[in-house]
């Protein structure tokens, strides 16, 4: 089950995350409420009530990229002290990435996760998980949870978090990925393009790059998540705190 979740489920889970992401930017349906509902429904196979809170904290990430407290993508100071440049600790950090991102929401006092959309998400997720267990057993639910965790963590797809905001070359704050796996996850690697114009759906971001080569052709970009995954684990110079930090200092 774990092998299947790693080899197949992780890609399907990241594809679902892409749909949830598009809903968070109101790019799928014409009305905001419809996008909120679809984002929650699309997140159900991920096994956790993440659709509603993802929208809240992802939009904060766009408003305050790299902010030490308001951007949940920025690792906490204790994470950086623990991981340093140790390959084993880097692997543990990637494996725990879904949990760590959830924990970082506690440092944001200006925004509450608990609202009516999160309550709806929580109820529907409980019903969905119960239906999966009744129909297919606990192992099926375990598969969904494992696929979700692999898509965000200890997997070549997890290298996406390194690619997106670590300064891999010349203090470049964000990086894109133009490899073949984009075809499976709806161009989730086109990260520079997405941060430039977040109102363009990811399915059309390659067209943006082609239309404006003067903005993107000279930027550093990754070609392989797998190679970056291995490089991150083995290169002592690559650290999780190697990124641009703003705000009142790392929490």
UniProtKB/TrEMBL annotation:
Q: Which GO terms describe its biological process?
A: ceramide biosynthetic process
Sorted UniProt keywords: Membrane, Oxidoreductase, Transmembrane, Transmembrane helix
Question: Where does the chain cross the membrane?
Answer: 38-60, 117-137
Q: What is its EC number?
A: 1.14.19.-
Molecular function (GO) terms for this protein are: sphingolipid delta-4 desaturase activity
Query: GO cellular-component terms in the record?
Result: membrane
Pfam families membership: FA_desaturase (PF00487)
The lineage's top-level taxon is Bacteria
Residues in Fatty acid desaturase domain copies:
4-222
The protein in question is named Fatty acid desaturase
Name the species this protein comes from: Tsuneonella litorea
Is Membrane found in the keyword set?
yes
């Amino acid at each position: 089950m774990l092998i299947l979740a790693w080899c197949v489920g992780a890609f399907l889970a990241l594809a679902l995350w892409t749909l949830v992401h598009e809903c968070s930017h109101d790019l799928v349906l014409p009305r905001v409420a419809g996008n909120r509902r679809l984002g929650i429904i699309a997140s159900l196979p991920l096994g956790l009530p993440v659709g509603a809170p993802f929208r809240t904290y992802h939009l904060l990430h766009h408003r305050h990229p790299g902010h030490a407290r308001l951007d949940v993508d920025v690792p906490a100071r204790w994470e950086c002290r623990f991981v340093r440049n140790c390959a084993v600790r880097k692997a543990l950090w990637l494996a725990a990435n879904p949990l760590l991102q959830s924990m970082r929401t506690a440092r944001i006092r200006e925004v509450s996760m608990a609202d009516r959309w999160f309550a709806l998400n929580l109820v529907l997720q409980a019903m969905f998980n119960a239906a999966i267990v009744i129909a297919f057993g606990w192992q099926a639910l375990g598969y969904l949870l494992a696929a979700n965790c692999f898509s965000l963590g200890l997997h070549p797809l997890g290298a996406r978090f390194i690619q997106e905001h670590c300064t891999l070359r010349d203090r470049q704050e964000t990086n894109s990925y133009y490899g073949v796996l984009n075809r499976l996850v709806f161009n989730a690697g086109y990260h520079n393009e997405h941060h430039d114009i977040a109102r363009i759906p990811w399915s059309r971001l390659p067209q943006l790059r082609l239309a404006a080569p003067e903005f993107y052709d000279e930027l550093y970009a990754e070609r392989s998540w797998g190679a970056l995954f291995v490089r991150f684990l083995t290169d002592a110079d690559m650290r999780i705190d190697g990124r641009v930090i703003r705000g009142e200092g790392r929490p």
